[in-house]
Design brief:
The radius of gyration is 20 Å and the shape is globular. By secondary structure, the chain is α/β, with parallel strands linked by helices. Strand 7 and strand 8 form a beta hairpin. Helices cover about 50% and strands about 10% of the residues. The N and C termini lie far apart (about 40 Å). Strands 1-9-6-4-2-3 form a six-stranded parallel sheet, with helices on both faces. The protein folds into two domains: about 170 residues, 3-Layer(aba) Sandwich (Rossmann fold); about 200 residues, Up-down Bundle (Dehydroquinate synthase-like, alpha domain), CATH 1.20.1090.
């Protein structure tokens, strides 16, 4: 039996943000809480959303303190503000961190805390407040997925809440909002999206439907990320990056991910590395590790991306890994050593990585401490 979940209402296109009041009308909300981060707020985007809402007669409150890799404490702070304001609807404006935090706040408005009670799959009893996602980056696909990723600072671990009740009720995707995203953020979030596409395609949980979305998303992302990185104001490339993220999101929310994300979650928890940058740093070396377990899929992806092949299976299975390493280097994404990570940290990191649930979906299952440390060493 095959099951494929897709439950997103997406309004996509340039200028779509201006339609926000009309799009919110079915909820008849009078009080709306906007959730964003300091960068998006400083850029004036969160304030613009507030202005559009207030001009339509809505009462708004802005929470603008979302951290990169949001923590349980960050969630609790925002939830306390929401419970005092009593909004009827939440709007997340930003990247994956803002959308994930808004999902958690939505959940806590209708379910008792603490938030970590709901870690894992299918543990949310009641749907939260209505949630609208307005993405300003193209990377996490959080705006269309049923996943919320948070950091437990007490346990020093990044964990996920996966439940269909978390999927935003509406997505307003306006590529105009992404054209001022800095090149380094474009690079990191873009590599996050590419990692989603690749890992979901080779996942042990992949199905023909998820594979189709993963491949189509990968092709769009790979073609357009270098263009968006070099010229952020190229709206066609920005549109395509958003589209690629949506398509990929439908793939990975059904197929799950793998070892790259297991490593990245641990790196973010211990060193505060942005999620996309952590994925990018280890992706090429995890692909080389995984290649012998799924050589044909690696070759299929290389073929899709028109990468040069030799028709020698033992060599061609590594072509994609090499291409990803070149792409990461071209965009100057930092190596792990740039964050102060040394080999002295490997044993501690390895212990946590081996406990990551997402490893169950990785195509190669003989994952050992030695293999993880080899990957980390290559990424230094």
């Amino acid at each position: 039996m095959m099951r494929f979940y897709a439950n997103s209402d997406i309004v996509f296109g340039r200028g779509s943000l201006q339609q926000l009041p009309e799009l919110l009308r079915p909820w008849k909300a009078e009080k709306v809480m906007v959730v964003s981060d300091p960068g998006v707020t400083a850029a004036g985007i969160a304030g613009n959303v507030q202005n559009i809402l207030e001009q339509a007669g809505l009462n708004t409150l802005l929470y603008s303190e979302v951290q990169a890799n949001p923590t349980n404490e960050n969630v609790n702070q925002a939830a306390a503000l929401a419970k005092g304001f009593k909004p009827e609807l939440l709007i997340a404006v930003g990247g994956g961190s803002s959308i994930d935090l808004a999902k958690a706040v939505s959940l806590l408005m209708t379910n008792a805390g603490p938030i970590e009670l709901y870690g894992g799959i299918g543990n949310v009893p009641r749907k939260g407040l209505p949630l609208v996602a307005i993405p300003t980056t193209s990377g996490t696909s959080s705006e269309i997925t049923n996943v919320c990723a948070l950091i437990d600072t007490q346990k020093v671990v990044k964990y996920v809440i996966i439940d269909n009740k978390l999927t935003p009720d509406l997505v307003v995707a306006d590529p105009e909002l992404t054209k001022t995203v800095p090149a380094r953020v474009t690079a990191a979030t873009g590599m996050d999206a590419i990692t989603h596409a690749i890992e979901s395609y080779i996942s042990r949980k992949a199905t023909p439907l998820s594979e189709y979305h993963s491949l189509q998303g990968l092709k769009i992302l790979y073609q357009n990320l270098p263009v968006a990185y070099e010229n952020g104001r190229n709206l066609l490339a920005r549109e395509q990056m958003m589209l690629g993220c949506f398509i990929t999101g439908f793939g990975f929310s059904n197929a799950n991910l793998g070892l790259v994300h297991g490593i990245a979650h641990t790196l973010s928890a211990h060193f505060g590395i942005a999620h996309g940058a952590a994925n990018a740093a280890v992706l090429p070396y995890v692909l080389s590790f995984n290649a012998p377990s799924c050589p044909q899929k690696m070759i299929d992806m290389a073929t899709l991306l028109s990468l040069p092949l030799t028709r020698e299976r033992n060599r061609d299975q590594y072509v994609l890994a090499n291409a990803m390493e070149k792409l990461v280097d071209m965009m100057k994404i930092p190596r792990l050593s740039a964050y102060g990570i040394t080999e002295a940290d490997f044993e501690m990191l390895t212990e946590d990585i081996l406990r990551e649930p997402v490893l169950a979906f990785n195509p190669r299952q003989d994952i050992t401490g030695e293999s993880i440390q080899s990957i980390l060493r290559q990424a230094l």
